[in-house]
Amino acid sequence: MPLGPRELAAGLAAALAGDFTDPAATIVAQLRLPRTLLAASMGAVLALCGAVSQGLFRNPLADPSLIGVTGGATLGAAAAMALGAAALPALPVLTVVSLGAFAGGVAAVLLVYRLATDSTGTSVATMLLAGIAITALAGALVSLFEFYADNTLLRRISLWKMGGLETGSRPEVLLALAVTAVLCVALPRHGSALNALLLGESEAAHLGIRVGRLKAILVAWIALGVGVSVALAGTIAFVGLVVPHVVRLAIGPDHRYLLPGSALAGAVLLLMADTAARLLAPPAEIPVGILTALVGVPFFLSLLRQRARFGMVAA
Amino acid sequence: MSTLLAIQGLSAGWGGCPVLTGIDLELNTGEVLGLLGPNGAGKSTLLRAMAEDLAPLAGSLAFDGRPLADWPPAQRARRVAYLPQASTLAFPFTVHEVVMLGRLPHDAGRRADDALVAAALAWTDTTHLAGRLYTLLSGGEQQRVQLARVLCQLLHRAPEEPLDGRLLLLDEPSAALDLRHQQLLADTVRDLAARGCSVVLSLHDLNLLSSLADRLLVLADGRCRAIDTPAALLTREFLGELFGTGLAVQPHPLKGYPLVFPDA
């Protein structure tokens, strides 16, 4: 049901005052507000985690999905759906599918991190390669679930993979806001250390940074952020890759400004994308993950072609 | 003169396989030590061990009387700075931002940091590049910027302060520099050493090394072949045997330190 700006404002005011006689108040409180908050917070988390991964891998083209979080989470969600999530009662905060996604994402990152760590430390290059391998393995297992799935399950899995923000229930939104708040405080504190890391791990260590500890902390935060976002909103492509890249072109690579800037831009972008997803073909909703990829890819490719103008050199 | 860095029986290398064995060295405050040797002799490995980039396989390194590994990273970073042979920075920081990264271990305050960065830029003749993007510079310019970053890491509060107890490690700092900037590098190293900073550097330019170093440590096949003054070591016989090629040696017409030429 469409609401004009005036009705929206009145509804929001009434809902905040606890007055639900106006149907607009109910629409705002039950549907629009949770969804808006979920979109903004997940956009912020994805862009923030993307910016941190690009710093961690010293590669402006890195993406959180490279270290296996997204693949693992998709596998966890598919497994939860296939193994009868519907039969289990929904848990108070998260559904079984969301829990499966979160567990899968964190498990994949831990595995990748272990694979890349030996007595001499953690190799970021190995982590990237291991992440690609684990993502491929998770993809194969998801396909296996899809192969044995009936039609209903197949559609559920594939819809979930497309990403969407329509399930914004109150506990989910509160969880998203809490995680966003924690990451927005925790990650920018490492801004200067990430700047040093761009010089190289050994150079950062000579500047007094405890590099091993820093990498472990950053990977843990990325796993939490992306794990929760995939659990709540499915896989939303390209926000984590494109947003930090664009913000870096605009304000430079200094992480002390890049991290908050990316969070803000990510929130705005995903909110706009989700609004477009709702409005483009009513009453149907295009899954927002499709939209971000459709818009993100051409934009990103044009940036790739022009990045020399901004001092980005091909690695 | 006091010992700043004491190395005893050091072996170092990768994957448990030593590149260097049995190195002993006492580096004095304000001393310039040159590392000399053919490719693969272990010069970079020794510098990396001194920078604690590489844990020793055997032996010990003590910096200012305390095992190097026991220094908290941030404290060590205020006194030991290391310029690696090659740096890869693919992100478009400005030159000023790159040099300012050298101030990370310190908390001298914004105004002091700005003054120290300005001094480091001036010493490396990069002041005019301050606003440029690092990624768009030439190789030699990038090397000077990295040198500026390392220099301003060693300063605590003022550009002209005494530098006793600080150690500067430079791996091939002149490889990409033109003649003028090689001389500028040499002047800067002499000035730092005169103020008490100890410097260890590897150079392939024997004449620059000869003009700069108080002592030379000659490495061959991962072992210390000799350690002595340039005048004692830079002889036709010794160098010919070390590098396996014919060389001629003559004193510098004005300064008297040995100059080395190919004899062909």
Please describe what this structure looks like:
The complex is a heterodimer of chains A (315) and B (264). Chain A has 315 residues and is mainly α. In chain A, 72% of the residues lie in helices and 1% in strands. Chain A contains 13 helices and 2 strands; from the N terminus they run H-H-H-H-E-E-H-H-H-H-H-H-H-H-H. In chain A, helix 3 crosses helix 4 and helix 8 (191-197) packs across helix 12 (255-279). Chain B is an alpha/beta fold and 264 residues long. Chain B has 2 domains: 3-233, Rossmann fold (3-Layer(aba) Sandwich), CATH 3.40.50; 234-264, no CATH class. Chain B is built from 9 helices and 12 strands. In chain B, strand 11 (247-251) and strand 12 (258-262) form a beta hairpin. Chain A binds chain B through residues 58-60, 192, 195-196, 198-200, 202-203, 205-210, 248, 252-254, 310-313, 315, and chain B through 51-53, 73-78, 80-82, 84, 87-94, 97-98, 101-102, 104-105, 133-136, 153.
Descriptive tags:
heterodimer, A: 315 residues, mainly alpha, ABC transporter involved in vitamin B12 uptake, BtuC, two-stranded antiparallel sheet, 13 helices, globular, B: 264 residues, alpha/beta, Rossmann fold, six-stranded mixed β-sheet, four-stranded antiparallel β-sheet, 12 strands, 32% helix
